[in-house]
Amino acid sequence: MKKYSFLSLCFIFILSLSCKEDQNQKLDKEDSSEEISSKNLTFSYVTKTISKDSLDTCNINPCPELDIAYLHITDDTDAGKKINQLNEKSLTKIVLTPSDSIPQENMDKSIDKFIEEYAHFKNEFPESHAVYELYIRQEKLFETDSILVLSSIFYNYTGGAHGYGAKLYHTYDKVNTKRIEPRALLKNEKAFKAYAEGMFRKKFNLSEKESLNKNGFFFENDEFKLPENMAITKDSLHMIYNPYEAASYADGDIKFSFPKKDVEAWLNY
Q1: Within a domain: residue 167?
Q2: What Pfam families has UniProt attached to this entry (predicted)?
């Protein structure tokens, strides 16, 4: 199988992570920060940043390397507050340690727990040179009157040979203030899945009958499946298989961007 690192694992980690880009591999271009003015709700955004230097506890206790910036809706509306809560709840699933498998209710508590777990680790293994690392960056990818699409990249290291980095898409229903699951973006999942499998095989030069897993992929029962992360923007449908979802960590992420005009018959938005 031809290997694609696709840059998501080569984030600009200022957390002492070094990552080597394969010059022969290219990441599909993604619409970034597209916006359509909203008539229903007015959303303004600030970046809420938390760093090691900004936390008083890190002046006293050992702290992990932290660099976290995520979007926070500043509108004083019920919808804005609810989407903030949903967004933070989604991000808390990133801020976990080996001994902390249950996400906290918000980011502040998640970060406190992450720091606490690192301090416990250092007290138990003072000779260890491992430093926990957490990096999060979030941007608004797309917005209409009815939906808000956010994109997040992250890296989490809590010991071992390497950490884990990935890219996540989250779509929110602004009218009903709920998260829209990726499959709910599709009104004909079966038809789109068949199309996506054809494009997947074409990308990796695999015939219609050729085994996926014998070519290095990880699909359960050797059956193609759609990824956990999909997003609709103004002109495109994006989908991304993060490391371990369809291929090895070394293969990085596998990303597709389909022109909306080619797939709009199967979309709900």
Answers
A1: yes
A2: DUF3298 (PF11738), PdaC (PF13739)
Nearest residue to 83 (alpha-carbon basis) of 155, 136, 166, 140? 140
Task: Quote the pTM value.
Answer: 0.82
Q: How far apart are CA 229 and CA 239, in angstroms?
A: 6
Domain count, the chain: 1
Q: Which domain holds residue 147?
A: 45-266
The answer to the question of residue 212 being in a domain is yes
Within 8 A by CB and 6+ apart from 12, the residues are none
We report the CATH number of the domain holding residue 185 as 3.30.565.40
Q: What is the pLDDT of residues 182-239, one digit of tens each?
A: 999 999 999 999 999 999 999 999 999 999 999 999 999 999 999 999 999 999 999 9
